[in-house]
Amino acid sequence: MDPEVGNGCVQEDEELGWGKSLPVPSVQEIVRNDSLCVPERYIQEHQNRPDYHSEVSYASSEIPVINMSLLANGDKDELRKFDIACKEWGFFQITNHGIAETVIHNMKEAIAAFFQLPFDEKKKYAMPANDVQGYGQGYVVSEQQKLDWSDVLFLVTLPPSVRNLKLWPVTLPGFKESIDQYSTEIQKVTEEIFAKLSLLMGMDKDGLKMLHGEIKQATRMNYYPTCSRSDLVLGVSPHSEASTITLLLQDDKITGLQIKHKDSWIPVEPIPDAIVVNIGDVAEVLSNGLYKSVEHRAVTNEKKARMSVATFVIPSEEVEIGPLESMVDDKQFPRMYRNMKYVDYLRHTLERKMDGKAHTEYLKL
Fold first, then answer.
1. 283-309: average pLDDT
2. Which residue, among 132, 63, 125, has the nearest Cα to 95 in the 3D structure?
């Protein structure tokens, strides 16, 4: 019998959250029980399988790398690089971001410690029936859809007042402290990126921050077990993100993230202690399509398990998103997206499986 994650219980004392995801088997436990087993539900349709022969590996070196120290200090060349990265790639890696190596190390150790817990212990933090927070897998909306070869722990991390600590493994030594430190440091980096995006979009440097109301941060901790048939499965299906920006901490040694650029899948090779930043759907809408959220996916590895941490920066639920006036010109840059309350868009995305750029199409006029 499959070791299923999810307790199926509705939290009576909690309001309905952003959405829900159906309980599915733990991939980590599938592999632990039989390392050669790849259940049919994880085998992707032929056209969706990773094609390692067609990956454009050489283009990985072209993915922009932004020096955050130069950017923060007003270097015009770095700002130009940043602008081009947001327009032409939607993805870039940042170095010299100011987050201490010990903070990054402790975050990685905390995630590793969680996924090393016995399965019965991890199940205590399973996603409730009416929430996407907790341990399990996101975006599972039907019993028929193909599943990703990964397990996740998804938590809303900032502001502290909205945390659901019932789903935090706070008894794990150092876990909460590591999350606290990392999320605080990521917020500082976020504010610097927001300041530069604000200037590029015709606002003062606090413009994006003010538009977001109370900025929220959600963290998805991913565990990608080994797979004996990595050519048949995906760690995460192709998608763009419903965030403003997402900041990803990769495994330093194993390449798993791929981005779609000019119709080709390009691997994002890790730079030790760098953070990958990608433009989310909200930034695409606010910029009226000047900056685009980019389709990306994760592949698996036959020999080594991999972990990553994705931090999603999102507006307050009641904020209305739509093109900024400074980004609209009726003749040259007509409005491309409609206005919508952010929580409505977020719930729309979480009610559906990951499906490339389908979600942003919903926002277009």
1. 97
2. 63
Q: For residue 365, what are its two tokens?
A: 């006029």
Q: What does the block give as tokens for 16?
A: 């309905």
> Residues with Cβ < 8 Å from 121, sequence gap 6 or more?
169
Q: Identify residue 51 by its one-letter amino acid code.
A: D
| 3-state class (DSSP) for residue 126 | strand
Q: Would the pLDDT of 126 be above 90?
A: yes
Contact 295, 360 (CB under 8 A): no
Task: For the sheet with 275-279, list strands across it.
Answer: 65-67, 91-95, 275-279, 245-249, 306-314, 216-224, 151-158, 134-136
- The whole-angstrom separation of Cα 238 and Cα 358 is 10
Element (H, E) at 121: helix 119-122
Per-position DSSP letters for 232-285, written without gaps between them = T--SEEEE--SSSEEEEE--SS---EEEEETTEEEE----TT-EEEEE-HHHHH
Summarize pLDDT for 237-291 with one digit per residue, the tens: 999 999 999 999 999 999 999 999 998 999 999 999 999 999 999 999 999 999 9
Q: Tell me the pLDDT tens digit for each residue of 173-189.
A: 999 999 999 999 999 99
268-271 contacts at long range (C-beta below 8 A, 24 or more positions apart): 268/60, 268/63, 268/91, 268/93, 269/60, 269/61, 271/65, 271/93, 271/95
Please count the other Cβ atoms lying within 10 Å of the Cβ belonging to residue 80: 11
H/E element, 107? helix 101-115
